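Quick one: examine this chain and its backbone structure tokens and tell me how the chain folds. Here goes:
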Amino acid sequence: MDVEGTPSFHGYHMPAQWEPHSQCWMGWPERQDNWRDDAVHAQHVFAEVASATSKFEPVTVCASATQWANACSQLPENIRVVEMSMNDSWFCDIGPTFVVSKSKSSLGILEHKVAGIDWNFNSWGGTDDGCYRDCSLDILVARKILEIERLPRFPQYMILEGGSIHVDGEGTCLTTEECLLNKNRNPHLTKVQIEDELKAYLGVKKVIWLPRGLFGDDDTNGHSDNMCCFVKPDANGRKLQIIKLHVPGPLYMTDEEAAGLIQIGEAKPRISGTRLAASYINFYIANGGIIALQFGDQKWDNEAICVLSLAFPDHEVVGIEGAKEIALGGGNIHCITQQQPAFA
């Protein structure tokens, strides 16, 4: 059901990721030009992420008709697998941005509602700068998820990916100028106009603009989820406390990894020797758990687990080995997951 007007007009806002979830949504990788060796390695890591997350909250994985049986065979029985077409599997970017509202009914009962924002999508830059040309299936993913869950849909024609924004749930949003002000997204909108749209759709009052994202994050033009995130509501007029995390590596795509890709002509080439945009910030916050990245760099891997454990003392931190495999495709754990808030 499409809703007229903006989410904030109807009393909705985007909650912080550490607030309760009803489930986590993921896609299933298969593109041969983005996931090497017929996505065998990537599918293994996606399954590890889904399995680890399912210990803390329900997980739904969406797979194409040709991959549905394969996904079912690799995932635990407690994970729901639904058939869905998509161009690739970055559900943080192509899935809906969920928003919530609380209001009292005529009987004085507090009601909790969940809806979703369906942003426009152009494959991170359009036909000239995007990661692949045809994103016609990706554009439908958010709507399909909201129809499956029978949730209201707020259509939004501004181009935006979920990984480019992060909120503290109390009125503050983080994003980057490198991405949202890039001419390949919404060249007809000014910075003030884009900020107004974020306020109207996310229910925020303040937008913190970082100049740029992580070095080398060219695929997304500097998404914030590879650079910086909130770990508690320390905005809204409070003094910000900054926690630093090293980056691993540097990590590069090897000759063997590049050789496993089949270039079909429409996707951005993955070239041997390319430095990967790897970051420990790209973790997923589940109900009582942190699904963290491990790149095989023991010194910084261990430090990341320690820092995240201190930042989230009430969460169990679970490290996922082989996070480099997702980085080869252009993102990581936060990029392939999308949290759906709980009703209460």
In short: The chain has one domain: 21-341. The chain has a mean pLDDT of 95. The first helix runs from residue 40 to 54. DSSP finds ten helices and 13 strands in the chain.
